[in-house]
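Retry 2 of 3 after timeout on previous attempt. Resubmitting structure tokens to design endpoint.
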């Protein structure tokens, strides 16, 4: 048995149980919003995913509960219906998690760890704990003291990033997802990027200055979304600390805010270059408090190859989704690397997302 792999899986599981430890079965089993799963579905899905990859596919053993495979498959059972179908109850989900883990340990005893698959399964569970926190926030179920957003310090302002190529994507020799590979050179023109993300106080100025009424600041799609859903403000900006990063804003709102400031959202290449290039004397501040929207649609890097399964990334490629970078207070540090790519629909507000501005360099006089 690899103690390293077992310890990693156990640490992640302890984090999952701690996340929901203050909740009762009623909270775990209700669906707070059609765009989110009941928390108990996530628990069952975590168990099914581990059984599929570490016991069935890696260990070449039958699934523990093949009758549950479709129920806990994210594509076979979309979020909108997860609150309407029969799921394992809280005790059943805990039993499923326990029994699968015993099977995983038995396979590890027999075969040892796979350097990719065991890390992937642990990270998958970490990603779901952040998704679960999104549902918990919508349902008023976050633990006392959360969200962990802290006031921004420092002078703010801009960082000037010189033009030129940089190596974008994950380097060899470390775990990364298929959409982060292959590493490739990207030539990025000179630009400016905000030293820190937009604060709640600055967002309130935008709102008070007509930010949700000024048509000229909104894209056609963004304005239609705002009107259809009667979006007039960002509740979290009003409730949060004035100097903390604004959170729970959609891409449409982030784009409109940037236009109101005579700026724009960074491309993901600009974001990644700044996050890696400025690690010296002038780094980006507050990376990892909120996901940061970019202007880039989610797509493949040149030479992309799906691994170990195409449904992780490839089915989401296209113009429908926008990329977010940097991680949030709810993201485990093992996931929040400078090359990690998150994505969501431009109308989504449930994600712990904020804004960091970019702009073209000032013209020389």
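Retry 2 succeeded. Sequence:
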């Amino acid at each position: 048995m690899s103690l390293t792999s077992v310890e990693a899986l156990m640490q992640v599981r302890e984090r999952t149980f701690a996340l929901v430890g203050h909740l009762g079965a009623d909270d775990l089993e209700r669906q707070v919003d059609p765009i989110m799963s009941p928390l108990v579905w996530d628990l069952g899905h975590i168990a099914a995913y581990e059984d599929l990859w570490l016991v069935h596919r890696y260990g070449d053993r039958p699934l523990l509960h093949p009758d549950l495979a479709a129920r806990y498959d994210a594509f076979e059972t979309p979020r909108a219906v997860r609150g309407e179908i029969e799921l394992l109850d809280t005790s059943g989900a805990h039993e499923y998690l326990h029994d699968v883990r015993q099977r995983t340990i038995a396979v590890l005893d027999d075969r040892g760890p796979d350097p990719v698959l065991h890390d992937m399964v642990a990270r998958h569970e970490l990603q779901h704990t952040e998704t679960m926190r999104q549902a918990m926030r919508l349902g008023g179920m976050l633990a006392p003291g959360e969200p962990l957003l802290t006031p921004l310090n420092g002078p703010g302002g801009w960082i000037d990033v010189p033009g030129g190529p940089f190596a974008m994507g994950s380097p060899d020799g470390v775990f990364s997802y298929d959409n982060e590979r292959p590493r490739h050179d990207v030539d990025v023109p000179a630009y400016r990027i905000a030293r820190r993300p937009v604060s709640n106080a600055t967002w309130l100025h935008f709102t008070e200055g007509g930010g949700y009424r000024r048509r000229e600041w909104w894209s056609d799609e963004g304005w239609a979304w705002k009107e259809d859903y009667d979006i007039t403000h960002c509740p979290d900006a009003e409730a949060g600390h004035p100097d903390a990063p604004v959170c729970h804003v959609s891409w449409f709102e982030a784009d409109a805010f940037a236009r109101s400031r005579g700026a724009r959202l960074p491309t993901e290449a600009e974001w990644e270059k700044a996050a890696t290039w400025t690690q010296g004397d002038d780094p980006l501040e507050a990376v990892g408090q909120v996901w940061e929207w970019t202007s880039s649609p989610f797509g493949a890097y040149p030479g992309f190859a799906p691994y170990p399964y195409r449904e992780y990334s490839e089915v989401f490629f296209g113009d429908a989704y926008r990329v977010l970078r940097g991680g949030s207070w709810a993201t485990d540090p093992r996931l929040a690397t400078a090359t990690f790519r998150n994505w969501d629909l431009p109308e989504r507000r449930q994600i712990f997302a904020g804004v960091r501005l970019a702009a073209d360099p000032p013209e020389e006089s």
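Attempt log closed. Residues 2 and 69 are 27 Å apart (CA to CA).
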